[in-house]
Design brief:
This protein is mainly β and 64 residues long. The protein is built from no helices and four strands. Helices cover 0% and strands 39% of the residues.
Length: 64
Amino acid sequence: MKQSTLDILRCPLDKAELDLDVEEQDGEEILDGTLTCTDCGETYEIADGIANLLPPDMREEAPS
């Protein structure tokens, strides 16, 4: 995900802005990290350069 994309992304639940926490970055490309809603506090994972912005009830549960 390009860091400049953050300017247009919003929380899918309440349309609030998202704060970025970068774990791994390559230039402008964010490879791993999280996006956190500034209003409701919901977090969205960025993995392999792709932000998962599905609402919590639509995400697949990780196998145990």
